[in-house]
Amino acid sequence: MCQLLGMNANTPTDVMFSFTGFATRAEEHKDGFGIAFFEDKGVRLFVDTSSARESPVAEMVRRYPIRSENIVAHIRKATQGRVALENTHPFVRELWGRYWVFAHNGDLKNYAPRLHGAFRPVGNTDSERAFCWLMQELAKSHASVPSIAELTATLAELVPQVAAHGVFNAMLDNGQALWAHCSTQLHHIVRQHPFARASLQDDDVTVDFAQQTSPRDRVAVVVTEPLTKDEQWHAFAPGEMRVFVDGAPLA
Amino acid sequence: MCQLLGMNANTPTDVMFSFTGFATRAEEHKDGFGIAFFEDKGVRLFVDTSSARESPVAEMVRRYPIRSENIVAHIRKATQGRVALENTHPFVRELWGRYWVFAHNGDLKNYAPRLHGAFRPVGNTDSERAFCWLMQELAKSHASVPSIAELTATLAELVPQVAAHGVFNAMLDNGQALWAHCSTQLHHIVRQHPFARASLQDDDVTVDFAQQTSPRDRVAVVVTEPLTKDEQWHAFAPGEMRVFVDGAPLA
User: Fold this and answer.
1) Is B2 annotated as catalytic?
2) Which residue among A88, A119, A122 places its CB closest to the CB of B99?
3) Which percentage of chain A shows pLDDT scores above 90?
4) Total structural domains within chain A
5) pTM of the model
6) Which domain holds residue B245?
7) CATH number of the domain bearing residue B81
8) Which residues of B touch A139 (CB under 8 A)?
């Protein structure tokens, strides 16, 4: 099983603290890592086939405070598809003049959706097949970028069709919102005023968010397993999809 | 005007020497840089809106010897489109289950091609519009990845239609071949056995390729202006397109 990390904020926020804790878990998830940062409509994607603990690319991410409102990261333990760059999450595609970023944790059995549209997998993972199918079906459902509410309604119809094939903990982000679906394991937290201190679960690192934030900042973090030991994380229910906008889950 | 750098090799080759010389030219081209490395079918794309001289991302590229058979890099001086990540070359799209990387130096005047297919620009440069149009027309011309000869024939029909709108020095790469088109300025060199020493034009750096290579290695480098002062660079003719495979231009 891989692990997922997503962040959605109402102001450009760096993810160094969360990524440090997340990368610590890469010992067991050594078959690559990837992280995508939106910067307005643009996206930076860093991927590597070595572990997030050892990769010089991951080292740069930890040191370089890239600020973003939407981030999706993934550490990989290969279940389907060999260890190769083209099989490393997150995956990126363009639709309606927007980039879409996708990462998946889980395993889809005998999953061969009919791909007759403009999105074809480059690698050979179940995950990229699922992403291409979702993009294809979104492209059929709307003529241009719809509202977040409309996209959420369409995804609520599409995602269960993928999830029916196995375990589908997944994140999709278009720079405006982060959609997260839980099959088996996913947690979220919203950090907002008054900000407190937090200590990483897996590492001897503590941060005082109050010193790094302004009172109107709000940041949602979604992750496979809680990253900190002194904050209140909320578990997703199996089959639950949540959408995060401006650092908070929509009702 | 921006500057372009492309590399096509018959064995995974690092581009540190060439990129060092290329990045030196970023003083005048300070509106961002980008570099894409193919690794088999996968691609790594590093982009930044700061100068290649100052960007920590460029610093990592200079230090980290990523080896690739196909590389496209670009340093940007904005002519159309604001300085933003979504306007930074190279651009990447997927077609037929392969990634395609594109970078452009030049300026297309009043260029508004009809984009009715699956490729839409995310930013607002003439360059990304041209790339989307090329991808759209390639998608119409072939049902799946054609041979390099067939692709070259199709591109030979399409590219002049873009170039008719202004200056179109451009590179397209799909990890199998590098297509380079010259409107005004482009040079190439093939480095092969017996390898010699070379000294950068803009920087006090010399490399002895014989110490870093094996006799069967072959590397083609394509660049706006020659990078070294002691090698024989070949200028493209205006309107000329060349395709490079396994480190050499095809006849």
Assistant:
1) yes
2) A122
3) 66
4) 1
5) 0.94
6) 3-249
7) 3.60.20.10
8) 118
